[in-house]
Design a protein that fits this description.
MetI-like fold; 13 helices; 0% strand
Amino acid sequence: MRDRAASVVVHSLAALVLVVLAFVVGYTIYKGWDALVHTNFYTQDLRSTGPLDPLTKGGVRHAIIGTLIEVGIALAIAVPLGLIGGVFLHEIPGRFSRFVRTVVEAMTALPDILAGLFIYATLILIFGLELSGLAAATALAVTILPIVIRASDVVLRLVPGSLTEASYALGTGQWRTVWHVILPTARSGLATAVILGAARAIGETSPVLITAGATGYTNTDPIHGPMMSLPLLAFISVQSPQPAEQARGFGAAAVLLVLVLMLFAIGRIIGGRGPGQLSTRQMRRRRAASSRDLTRYTARHSAAAPVAIAETGG
């Protein structure tokens, strides 16, 4: 009876979470539907659009481009460092490793606004970098780096110790074992860690507002000039009393949801295969390599057969 009661509670909580999630997504799409049905919403920016202009004018192209650029740069900075940090915490025990783990755990609870203020005080005020997408991407990288490190560390701990012991027993070094055994085994979990970091970065508003500013123009240069992002546009637009601006804000939030879903799907495709499960291309390469090995062995055997016959006097 206790098992059944616990099962009912767990399934009820899961259903409640799904209902809340469906309500959030449905409400966002419903409020932004008037903007989402217009083609110009995806192909135009807000350089010549005012709060009183209809939804047939202006769009969120500049925010979509800005979000993709900022998140892309942030992931390019944080993912390699995060994976290296996770491997370091897992493979190199010691006093310095414990110190790094403590710092990472403290940074996980760091408010996002502090990351933006840190980048603003260093890159912008000290080094003279202007408000730009690069500054915002750096702030986002600082925000998601501890998440990727902690998630990677937890995933690497789940790799069975028998696999690493077998690798060491065959004479393989530590880093070769990490590269060929541990990381491929934990690939799916590492992809989840990257998705968690990307989902955190793609929805940030305060660091982007401080370091990148806001603009209605399309800016594809991450080094020069302010750059708009989807969460910042949604935050600004929904505060307007004009219904058209509110619809643009909810429409931007809906587009942001779609981008997160696409990112999740890409991450699942990249890291969704289990340990030792090969893709179709890898299977073709393995079959071709096996065919070449068979041809080489057959030729070697054919060349060695006459020599063996001659040695035996046959």
